[in-house]
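Anyone? Bumping this.
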Amino acid sequence: MKKVFLNLIVLLCISFFPLTAQSADIVTDMISTPEVTWAQAAYFSASWLYPDQEFSDMNSAFNYLSENKIIKANINPESTVSLKQLSGLCLKTWNVKGGLMYKLTKADRYAFRELKAKSIIDSSSDPSDKVTGRKALEIINFCASLNSPSGDL
Amino acid sequence: MKKFLVLLLIISLSLSSVAAIDFGGIIDNTTASTAQPDNIVRNLANDTKVTAWISSPFDRNRKSFFIAEGYYNLNASSFDTSAKVINTVDLSLLKFSIDIDISDSFKTTFNLGRYILSDLTSSIFSQSIDGLLLTANTPIITASLFAGYTGLLNAKTVSFYTLKPTEFDNSKLYIKAADCFIASANISFPSVVFNQTPSIEVFETIDFNEDGYNKAYMTASLNGPIVGLLFYNVSSTLGLSSLTSKNEWSTSNLTKANLSFYPKLMSSSLALNFAFATGGDNQTFQPFTSSSISIVSHTMSNVLKTGISGSIKPIQFLLITANADVLLTANNESEQNKTTYDGFQWQSSISVQPLSDIQIIGSFGQFIANSGNSTIQFSAKVTLSL
C-alpha cells in the first residue's frame, strides 16, 4: 500500500513537472523527509515560476525567490516550513484563486484556509503544523493541477 | 462569571503553545420575517452577528486541545411600530478536550466546558450546556456519561421549559438562565449485526427552582442500512415528568422514524420523516429544549409531524434543499387521544458559496392552516469568514 502511494506521488510529479535527473533526486529525497524545509519547498516553486533559470541546488532556488520578494528576506532556508507558510507559497506560485479575504490580504493564514476548504489539507490540521515531504508533494501537485500549463523542474 | 471565564481562557492560553494558536472570525447578517402576507414587510427583523473564535492544541499529537467561540448579536426590528434594538453577547463554545487511549481498542475522550449537546432523538435536548462528557469507545460498544448545569448559560440564546420563566430585560447583554441539573448515560453498539446500530439513552433533568419541573427520558433507537443506499432511523422515548412538590410521575411518549435515500446523483438526498409526541390521558410530552418544528412555532409537544425532505448539489457551490410537512395536534386535554389536522407547510432554501469564505443563503416557506390562513416565512443571510 505504502509503495503504491509513493509510486503514485512520483507519477503525479512527473505528470506536472517534466523531471530532470537532479529534480528526480530531490523528489525522491522529499518523499522521505519528515519535516520539509523552506529550501526544499522553494525549489519546486522557483522551478515553476522561472523555468528558464538553472538552479544548481535548493539553496540557490531559495535565494532567487528571496531576491524576487516571493519569500521574506528574514527566513532561513534550513528552517522548517509550516503548513500555513507552504499554503501561502503554493497559492502565490500557482496563482490559485482564494477567498475574498485572501484576495484582499494575500496572507498565508487565508491561503491555508483555502486549501482546507478545497479538502487538500485535513480539517483538523493546525496552521503551525510541520509538513512531511509526502504531504508537501501532495499539496504542490494539487496546486499545480489547478494551474496549467505546467512548468519545468 | 466574567472573572471565571477570563481565568479559564488565561489558563488555556498558558497551557497551549502560542505558535499553534489558530483564530478567526465570522460576520453574518440575516434579514428575516415570519407573518401573514399582509404583515411580512412590517415584521422584518435584521440580525448582525460578529463571532470570534480561538483554538489551540495542548500537545503535538493533538490528543488534547481547547476551543472557544463568542459572539455579539445586534437584533433590530425597524419596521415594527414598537421598533426595538436587542444587544446580546454570548460565549457559545469553550471546550477542553482530552483523548486518552487506554489501549489500541479502548479509547476515551473527556470534554469539559461549554458545548452543544444533543440527545439520541435531537428533539428532546439540543442546545449549549456547561458540563463534563466522558466517552469510551471500543470496537463493539460506545458509551458516554454526561453531567451538566444550565445556570451559567445566557437565557437570551437558549430556551428550555421551566415552571418559573426567566425574567427578560432586553437592555441586559447577558441574562443567566434558570438553574437545572442535566445528566445522561448512553450506550450504543455500532454496526453490531448487519451494520445495524442499537442505542439506549437515559436523560434526566432536575429543576433546582422552588417547585421545579423534573423530567426523565428513556430512549431506545435503531439505525442502519436497509438495502444499498437506503437507510433508516427509528426511536421511541418514554417521557416521565413530575413536580418537585408532588411524587406523581406523568408518562408520555415520543416516537420518531426516518427513511433516507442517497442516490448517486449530484450529492442528493431524499427522506421521509415522521414524529409523534403525545402524553397519556390529560398529559403532555414536553421536551427539555424548547425549539420550533414549524413556521408557526409548533414545538415537539402533543404533535404529529410527517413529511418529505430532500437536498441536491447540482454544482460545487450551490445547495438546494426543500421539505413539505403535514402537522396534526393531539388534543389530550379536551378530547382524549384525538388528533386534529392543523396545517401543511413547505420550505425551500438555496445556499450559494461563490468564494470559500462567503456564503449566501435564501429561504422561503409557507404554512397553510386548516382554517385557510397562510403564514409566510422569508430569510436572507450573508456570511463572511475572517
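Late reply, but here is one note on the structure posted above: The CA atoms of residues 53 and 69 of chain B lie 4 Å apart.
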